[in-house]
Specification:
- By secondary structure, the chain is α+β, with helices and mostly antiparallel strands.
- The chain has one domain: Lipocalin (Beta Barrel).
- It is globular, with a radius of gyration of 17 Å.
- The two termini are about 30 Å apart.
Length: about 200
Amino acid sequence: MLRKSELLEAIASTNRGLLVSDDERLAILALVARLEDSNPTPRPLEAAELLEGNWRLLYTTSDELLGIDRVPLVKLGHIYQCVRLAETRIYNLAEVGTLPYLEGLVSVAATFEAVSDKRVTVRFQRAVFGLQWLLGYQSPNQFIAKLMQSEKLTLLQGVDFEINREQSGWLEITYLDADMRIGRGNQGSVFVLKKVANR
């Protein structure tokens, strides 16, 4: 699809949105809107086979996510959003690069509830961060399995804490096909993600 390839080309060199001018951002948002107009899956929450799985972030306007890269000596690595429909859970994982052997991981686990055929309310429950080697991080699937087996990791592994149950937001899926998802959040952020092999 031409619209999809145009968007992918426009965001390819932006480092997920870190390297864009205001004009480029506006042009990308226009391409996003055009693609949303041709969404092949108007009821994405009913398309379990498409939605389920691990999604890697290609582009966002979220200052909260992009701000991780602005911390001194920290470089933002891959960011994943892993959707687990059977458990009605979403796991956000951000790999953080720094000095050798000091690579980190920031993760947030949340539950979600459908409020329409394309919007979910998200309730954040748990945050975990620490050094990848202490957390035993190898891949998103392996780490999620570890979180599901343990209510709380020890301080020797990383920092693991509950998030205020009142903290919530919403996410609307505005485009979904076999390998691309576009979403818009309650803070006005746009997310473009690519489905990746479960690992």
